[in-house]
């Protein structure tokens, strides 16, 4: 029987790793272990950004109602997300196939990830996250988690009519409606490359 050198094994492992799809998180050798992000840390960073957005949105609703929340989302949510990206040291964004703001439209690869999450949700086996190790990008699903979300994202019966009139004014091509509690809404996208150090 022919012996395989250690260098040959490492080469085979690296070739195997290169053949994995971009969303696979399989680590094939010790040399690649540093490329695997700490998903707890990434979840925590996304949680920070989400908490700031929800806090500001809740404050707008409490002060002036759902119409004010729409104005907050149209004028400040994107800037706030960008600012939080600077605070946490990584680009964080939200995308959805049924987007309200066209800036939140997915690119071709993100559409594939969204579809994978949606299929997982429909089968009752939705992944908690996905990783593209090649691009150093982390994807986390967003679900409709609170009944208050339905005031702007629900069906006609659940939506706040005055708020939705403002939504249609600011977003004439809005697709972010007809959701129910627990539905898959979109995903967080976090570029983590600078966080590996």
From TrEMBL:
The keyword Disulfide bond does not apply. Coiled coil: none annotated. Keywords: Signal. The keyword Signal applies. InterPro entries: Tll0287-like_dom. PROSITE patterns: PROKAR_LIPOPROTEIN. Residues 1-23 form the signal peptide. Residues 61-190 form the Tll0287-like domain. This is Tll0287-like domain-containing protein.
